[in-house]
């Protein structure tokens, strides 16, 4: 496998660059070793709130998962409604750009004012902010279904349910997947921002705490852990699932 | 055994009482056609039914104007025969196919089978399209199953039929492959297998070889004739390729660019035919000479 050495080389280059920066200014750029030590400490011995970093990651992950699933689910429902009803399609096509415009921070603040500083508010804010992005991808997918295939299915008198099950849904799978990956990459970030605003657990809460103490090394430790988990999910979960689901493409 | 095809359609040739092993005998078992298994049945031997179309008219409204695609069409199709519909682009070939299949109703005209009036949608037909129109995410076998399931073929009969019809088009060893692993010609064969697997009364083929390279198309034409001989299906084949029409057909309906049935040519050359056969070439050139002469004189004078 020639991917492993390539990844190793870029990783080493990244750490080396970071280390050089830390030589230049150790207070602003704590060394990779110092940050690595903090990661081990936070994971195995716990942060000073006596909770392992893994707990906070898990809490954030739960919120991310919930909002990603909700955003995708809502986008699918609206997308299908748009496909089956012209009026719905026109309404959402007109409003989508508006829905996509408000800055995430504004959405988070407004939702938190309404729902309070809790998990539900984080999930609702992230879902609200990212549903339109999922919808754009799903809607595009639904419009690109080959009408010839639907005509073929009609010629064989396939039922509406069969046409959705065997044509629309499999065709949509690649759009659902690409939407899922995009969402996942984005919702993590926004969920953490929302946590920074005043939630007592999750990665964002620890970032806020250590930032207020002026400790950059601890902030970086959480950032590195966080990036690591996202990459593991990307390569260990999403990639293999996608490869299996789209085996017909590699054909 | 329950009827193996969709309840809204009728089958004239099926034997629904047998469920024998699917592969060994090509014409028995689960709703297979039992009657016309030899080339003899392709000729009008006095027993084959005749489907007569008379005075067909179809027009479409375009704003306040009405555009007539064809009018006063009269022709006959013998069951088990190979009929081509030929004509220049835009002459209404596909519209005619859609009217015959009942996808769109005619404005006027009637259809009779052996003298009795039938509704256009009553024919149990299936389609082979210009492109294969396969579902890329399903294996070849599952693509055929899609049509069988849509037609309500019982699950226990499906696998046998899938294998048998893929074998008929020479693709039984590709049953687990995906469409993208096959060549264009192979994919079109799958389209043919899928259309035949539902055991239609009439097989409509809408320019099925026009997007293939000539070598592949030539091979598929020969194979199609073999398949036709084996299954005894009535085939209605749309093409704008006169050599193809003459090589394949018993009878050719020629539409002019005003949607008028200009001629119904019967091709009597014996089968099996070879491409380049003198009789075929002569039929084709006479047919085309008359067609161009007709175009030159214009419809008003004809």
Question: Structural class of chain A, please?
Answer: mainly alpha
Overall, the morphology of chain A is globular
Could you describe the largest sheet of chain B, including whether it forms a barrel? 6 strands, mixed
Largest sheet data of chain A = none
Helix percent band of chain B = 25-40%
Q: Element order, helices and strands of chain A? A: HHHHHHHHHHH
Q: Whole-number radius of gyration of chain A?
A: 22 Å
Q: pLDDT under 50 segments of chain B (min length 5)?
A: 1-45
Mean pLDDT metric of chain B: 79
Specify the CATH class of chain A.
Mainly Alpha
Helix and strand topology:
The complex is a heterodimer of chains A (251) and B (302).
Chain A: H1 3-24, H2 32-44, H3 53-84, H4 86-100, H5 104-115, H6 119-143, H7 147-155, H8 160-196, H9 203-212, H10 216-245, H11 247-250
Helix pairs in contact in A: 2-10, 3-4, 3-6, 3-8, 3-9, 4-6, 5-6, 6-8, 8-9, 8-10, 9-10
Chain B: E1 50-62, E2 65-78, E3 82-86, H1 93-101, E4 108-113, E5 116-118, E6 125-128, H2 140-150, H3 155-168, H4 184-197, E7 202-206, H5 214-231, E8 234-239, H6 242-248, E9 251-255, E10 261-266, H7 278-297
Parallel strand pairs in B: 3-8, 3-9, 6-7, 7-8
Antiparallel strand pairs in B: 1-2, 1-4, 4-5, 9-10
What does the model show?
- The complex is a heterodimer of chains A (251) and B (302).
- The two termini of chain A are 20 Å apart.
- Chain A has 251 residues and is mainly α.
- Helices cover 83% and strands 0% of the residues of chain A.
- The mean pLDDT of chain A is 90.
- By secondary structure, chain B is an alpha/beta fold.
- In chain B, the strands form two sheets. Chain B has a six-stranded mixed beta sheet, with helices on both faces. In chain B, strands 2-1-4-5 form a four-stranded antiparallel beta sheet, with helices on one face.
- Helices cover 31% and strands 22% of the residues of chain B.
- The model of chain B is unreliable at 1-45 (pLDDT under 50).
- Chain B has helices at 93-101, 140-150, 155-168, 184-197, 214-231, 242-248, 278-297, and strands spanning 50-62, 65-78, 82-86, 108-113, 116-118, 125-128, 202-206, 234-239, 251-255, 261-266.
């Amino acid at each position: 496998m020639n991917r492993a050495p390539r990844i190793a080389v870029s990783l080493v280059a990244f750490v080396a660059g970071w280390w050089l920066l830390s030589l230049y200014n150790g207070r602003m750029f704590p060394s990779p070793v110092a940050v690595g030590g903090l990661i081990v400490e936070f994971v195995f011995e716990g942060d000073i709130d006596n909770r392992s970093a893994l707990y906070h990651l898990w809490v954030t992950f739960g919120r991310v998962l919930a909002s990603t699933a909700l955003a995708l689910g809502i986008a699918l429902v609206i997308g299908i409604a748009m496909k089956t009803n012209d009026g719905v399609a026109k309404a959402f096509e007109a409003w989508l750009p508006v829905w996509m415009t408000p800055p995430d921070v504004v959405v988070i603040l407004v939702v938190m004012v309404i729902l309070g500083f809790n998990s539900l508010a984080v999930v609702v804010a992230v879902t609200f902010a990212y549903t339109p992005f999922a919808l754009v991808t799903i809607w595009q997918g639904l419009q690109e279904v080959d009408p010839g295939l639907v005509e073929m299915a009609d010629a064989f008198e396939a039922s509406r349910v069969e046409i959705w099950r065997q044509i629309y849904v499999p065709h949509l799978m690649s759009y659902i997947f690409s939407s899922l990956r995009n969402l996942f990459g984005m919702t993590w970030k926004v969920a953490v921002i929302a946590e920074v605003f005043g939630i007592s657990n999750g990665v964002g809460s620890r970032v806020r705490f250590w930032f207020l103490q002026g400790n950059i090394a601890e902030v970086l430790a959480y950032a590195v852990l966080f990036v690591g988990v996202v990459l593991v999910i990307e390569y260990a979960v999403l990639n293999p699932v996608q490869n299996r689901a789209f085996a017909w493409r590699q054909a | 055994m329950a009827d193996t095809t969709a309840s809204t359609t009728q089958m004239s040739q099926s034997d629904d009482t047998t469920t024998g092993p699917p592969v060994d005998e090509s014409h028995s078992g689960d709703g297979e056609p039992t009657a016309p298994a030899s080339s003899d049945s392709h000729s009008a031997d006095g027993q084959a039914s005749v489907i007569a179309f008379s005075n067909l008219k179809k027009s479409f409204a375009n704003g306040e104007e009405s555009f007539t695609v064809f009018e006063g069409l009269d022709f006959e199709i013998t069951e088990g025969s190979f009929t081509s519909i030929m004509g220049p682009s835009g002459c209404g070939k596909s519209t005619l196919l859609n009217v015959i299949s009942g996808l769109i109703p005619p404005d006027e005209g009637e259809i009779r089978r052996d003298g009795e009036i039938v509704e256009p949608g009553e024919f149990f037909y299936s389609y082979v399209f210009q492109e294969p129109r396969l579902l890329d995410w399903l294996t070849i076998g599952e693509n055929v199953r899609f049509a069988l399931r849509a037609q309500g073929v019982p699950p226990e009969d499906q696998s046998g039929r899938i294998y048998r019809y893929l074998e008929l088009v020479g693709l039984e060893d590709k049953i687990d492959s995906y469409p993208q692993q096959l060549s264009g010609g192979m994919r079109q064969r799958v389209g043919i297998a899928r259309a035949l697997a539902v055991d239609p009364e009439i097989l409509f083929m809408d320019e099925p070889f026009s997007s293939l390279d000539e070598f592949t198309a030539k091979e598929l034409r020969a194979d199609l004739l073999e398949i036709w001989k084996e299954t005894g299906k009535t085939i209605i084949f749309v093409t704008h390729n006169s050599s193809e029409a003459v090589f394949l057909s018993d009878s050719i309906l020629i539409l002019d660019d005003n949607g008028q049935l200009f001629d119904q040519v019967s091709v009597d050359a014996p089968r099996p035919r070879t491409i380049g056969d003198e009789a075929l070439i002569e039929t084709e050139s006479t047919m085309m000479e008359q067609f161009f002469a007709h175009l030159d004189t214009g419809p008003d004078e004809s």
